[in-house]
Design a protein that fits this description.
Layout lengths: L2 H16 L7 H11 L18 H14 L7 H12 L3 H14 L1 H14 L5 H4 L4 E4 L2 E4 L10 H6 L30 E5 L2 E7 L9 E5 L13
Antiparallel strand pairs: 1-2, 3-4, 4-5
The structure holds zinc ion.
Length: 229
Amino acid sequence: MNKLSAVIDKLVCYARKNLGLSAENEIYARNAVLDVLGSPDYAFTGETCTDTAPDMLLGELASVCGEEGIFTGDEREEYADKVMGALTLSPSEIRRRFARRLKVNSKSATDWFYSYCVKNDYVKKSRLDKNPRFEEGGLVITINKAKPEFRDPKKAASGNSVKGGYPKCAICRENEACPVRNKRTLRTVDLLLDGEKWFWQYSPYGYFYQHGIAVNCEHTPCTWTGALS
Ligand SMILES: [Zn+2]
C-alpha cells in the first residue's frame, strides 16, 4: 500500500470525525491536501483513523513526506499548517456553528470552539501540556517553553510587529487563515463589546486552559498615553 496515500486517507477521515468536514466536501478537502503536497501519486486506500488529536497523524505525515522527499524536517510546521488549514472549516462556517451553540449555552460554545482549535492544531495543546507547572497555595506558575518567541530572541525583540505591513500586526483579524507566520489554521469568532466590533481567538501558546484573546477588529496599536512619575 502506498504509505502517503494511506496517511492522506487517515487525515481526511480525521477531519470527517473531528473537524466537521462534510461528506459533500470530502473530495474537495482531499484534493486541497494533494495540492499542498505537490500533487503526488495518490490512490484511495480506505485507511481510517480513530485519533482525537492531530499530533500522531502529523508526525506520520512528516515521516512519510520526509521519505518521499516532499518536505524536510525544517518545513514540518509549515506543511502541518498548510495541511490542517486545508482540512479546517471556513471562517463563516465556524462562526455559524459557534453562534448556533451560543444561543443555547455560552460555555458549550466556547468549549466547542476551544476543542476545535486544539483538534485543527492551532492550539498546540500537547506541547503546552508539557510545560513545567507549579501550584502552591492558590498561586499557579507556568514556564511557557512551548512559545516560539521564547526560543528565538529575534522573534521576541520584534514583538507583534510584522514585516511588509500585511497583516498590520500579529493579532489583526487579517491573520485568519493567513500564510504569513503560519496562521492558516487560525479561526476567530465575532464579539460585540460596548457596540464595537471585536473578535475572539484562542492563543496557540496560551499560559492556561482556554487562554483566549479579545482583539479589536480595527488595528489599534497600544500606545502609552499616561505620564511617568
Ligand atoms: Zn493589528
